[in-house]
Automatic annotation (TrEMBL):
Name the UniProt record assigns to this protein: Vanomycin resistance protein VanB
Keywords of the record: Membrane, Transmembrane, Transmembrane helix
Record flagged with keyword GTP-binding: no
Region described as Disordered: spans on this chain: 1-58
Biased composition (Low complexity): 40-52
Species annotation: Micromonospora endolithica
PANTHER family: EXPORTED PROTEIN, EXPORTED PROTEIN-RELATED
YoaR-like putative peptidoglycan binding domain sequence ranges: 258-372
Signal peptide: none
Pfam families for this protein: PG_binding_4, VanW
Chain ranges passing through the membrane: 64-87
Length: 618
């Protein structure tokens, strides 16, 4: 019967082949007795007794030992072949780019492969010819990150479980693992594409007043980044031009879907107002406000999605929301008895915008039942008394005063007072940038400003808001001497003796602004005050610097004014003329007795002409 031999013990559970050997009776020189041979399992055979011829047959033990010996020989042979095939991490006979990696450890295989790549460096670095559509170009492999990942390639070569037979006989070639920077490759291929390509035109629905305007979609024609990368990786090492396909990509929203959105949503949306009801009353949302807030956004794939922009809706409704909302009021601070005092704010009620947009979108396609219910929720002030108390506003760190003439009855003085009142009590949080234009908004007649002299096209003319530059200079100096960061300011074209040279600023809506940043860890309060002949701005916070002072350079490049005669009339404002000059001012900031900052400010003043309202003497 067949017997599977394992020698003295079973082999370990490794991947060496198991050899099966069957024990058989070996033939003898003389024929056996038929009577005996008819019963091969008889006692004589089993006992090893001599046969009728007198010559004993080989005992079963001998046959087993011979079989075992043969098995050992076979196993030794197979084991030797297996040991040869399995030497190292990489199976023998494995090559990559012609480099023999078989029988090596991973580290040795990596070194051998790198050496082969060094030998092929010139070929690998050579520009790659690519054909895209009808155009051909050359790409620098290094510029797009084309390279061979040595470690990944060696790992692929060592992963030989699927090649167990090849470990014993034969050989195999392993393709190198090629990497490429997909975005950089895509950018280079687009250069080759040139005007063959076309960017995707996404569907769009916009508004002109309350009329929807349509942009129909068009597909893009361009290389697909991932597909291009796969083609380049596969063809780089072949030494032949690589064909990169141009792919047409259609937007997710079709022209038919655009027409459907216009017919079923856009046009019905602005056909009539929508009533917004709350527990505090109701407000009508007119078609104009609906058109400003109904947006059709398109994502990367070109899918057009309608949504109501609640922020735009709030802006479009303006003061109408005051009928149903009670806005929260921030805590404020004022100076009382020479110390800052907190005035608590109060909570309010505002529309819950989280559901309003979806609710409004649901009723816009309807011709009747155009009503939505708005939910009012508590709204806390952004700046609470507790937060304000923790900002470190405790002492005056700087103050600056400028003087004016004409008393409080003049239009110019009134403009100075108006802007000073608007800014008074402003709190600037740590890291926040303050914009004077942003804080006051437009300074026109509706805001209480009057006509007063302003510089326009190099001469003084009446203009609404004249005099606000004096307040701008005052607040600029207050922040300057507080050591705060100057973000934006612009000195006047001409120097006026009521201002410090260089350290002054004009302002003009909306083009010229004054900005500073609170670059401290504390909050700050802007406190303003005025008299009949002066305006003062003080900054309250926590004092950081020992001192902030200005050092001036001598004036240079002095120019003298020329005389200009103007036609007399109400728009003509005479001027005595002022010399022009260039000067530097250095802000010197000290802390712990040492100069820690020295900042240079420079400006060139023009000579202000001497304007005479009258005819030139003959």
């Amino acid at each position: 019967m067949p017997v599977t031999l394992y020698g003295d013990k079973r082999p370990p559970a490794d991947d060496r082949p198991t050899v099966q050997v069957t024990a058989v009776d070996w033939p003898v020189d003389e024929p056996t007795d038929p009577a005996t041979s008819a019963n091969p399992a008889g006692p004589a055979t089993l006992a090893g007794a001599p046969g009728p011829t007198g010559r004993g047959r080989r005992p079963r033990r001998t046959r087993l030992l011979l079989a075992a010996g043969l098995t050992t020989a076979v196993l030794a042979s197979v084991g030797g072949v297996s040991a040869w095939a399995y030497a190292g991490d990489v199976p023998r006979g494995t090559t990559v780019l012609g480099a023999e990696l078989g029988g090596r450890s991973r580290a040795d295989a990596a070194r051998e492969l790198r050496a082969e790549l060094d030998r092929r460096n010139a070929a690998l670095a050579a520009p790659l010819t690519v054909r895209v559509g009808e155009r051909e170009g050359r790409i620098d492999p290094a510029a797009v990150g084309l390279s061979i990942d040595v470690d990944a390639t060696v790992a692929a070569a060592a992963a030989a479980e699927a090649h167990a037979v090849q470990r014993l006989v034969g050989s195999r070639q392993v393709e190198p693992v090629v990497t490429v920077d997909v975005p950089r490759l895509d950018a280079e291929l687009k250069k080759v594409v040139g005007d063959q390509g076309r960017a995707m035109t996404k569907a769009a629905i916009t508004w002109k007043g309350t009329t929807p305007k349509v942009t129909y979609p068009k597909p893009s024609v361009a290389p697909d980044p991932e597909r291009s990368a796969a083609v380049i990786r596969a063809g780089w090492l072949a030494g032949q031009p690589v064909d990169v396909p141009l792919v047409e990509s259609h937007p997710a929203t079709t022209a038919a879907e655009v027409d459907r959105l216009v017919a079923e949503l856009a046009r019905p949306a602005v056909a009539a107002p929508v009533r917004l009801s709350t527990e505090r009353g109701s407000v009508s949302i007119p078609p104009q406000a609906i058109a400003k807030s109904l947006r059709f956004t398109s994502e990367k794939a070109g899918k057009l999605t309608p949504q109501v922009d609640v922020k735009r809706l709030r802006t479009a409704l303006g003061d109408d929301l005051a009928k149903v909302e009670a806005p929260p009021k921030d805590a404020t601070m004022k100076i009382a008895g020479g110390k800052p005092k907190i005035v608590p704010g109060r909570p309010g009620q505002q529309l819950d915008t989280s559901t309003l947009g979806a609710a409004l979108l649901a009723v816009l396609p309807k011709t009747d039942g155009r009503e939505v219910t708005g939910v009012l929720k508590p709204a806390d002030p952004e700046l609470t008394a507790e937060k304000l108390a923790g900002l470190g506003i405790k002492e005056r760190v700087s103050t600056f005063t400028t003087r004016f003439t004409g008393g409080l009855s003049s239009a110019r003085s009134q403009n100075i007072v108006t802007i000073a009142k608007d800014v008074d009590g402003t709190v600037v949080l740590p890291g926040e940038t303050f914009s004077l234009n942003g804080h006051t908004g437009e300074r026109g007649y509706a805001q209480g400003y009057r006509d007063a002299p302003v510089i326009l096209d190099g001469k003084l003319v009446p203009g609404v808001g004249g005099g606000t530059s004096q307040f701008t200079t005052t607040i600029f100096n207050a922040t300057y001497y507080a050591g705060l960061e100057d973000v934006e300011h612009k000195p006047h074209s001409y120097w006026f003796s009521r201002y410090p040279a260089v350290i002054e600023s004009t302002i003009f809506w909306p083009n010229l602004d004054f900005k500073f940043r609170n670059n401290t860890e504390y909050g700050l309060l802007i406190d303003t005050s005025y008299t009949s002949s002066s305006v003062t701005v003080s900054i309250w916070s926590t004092k950081i610097w020992d001192s902030v002072k200005t050092e001036y350079s001598p004036r240079r490049n002095i120019t003298t004014p020329k005389t200009i005669y103007l036609e007399p009339g109400p728009t003509c404002i005479p001027a005595n003329g002022i010399n022009g000059f260039t000067q530097d001012a250095y802000r010197v900031i000290k802390k712990d007795g040492k100069v820690v900052k020295r900042e240079k400010f420079s400006w060139r003043y023009d000579a202000e002409p001497r304007y005479i309202c009258g005819s030139r003497p003959s």
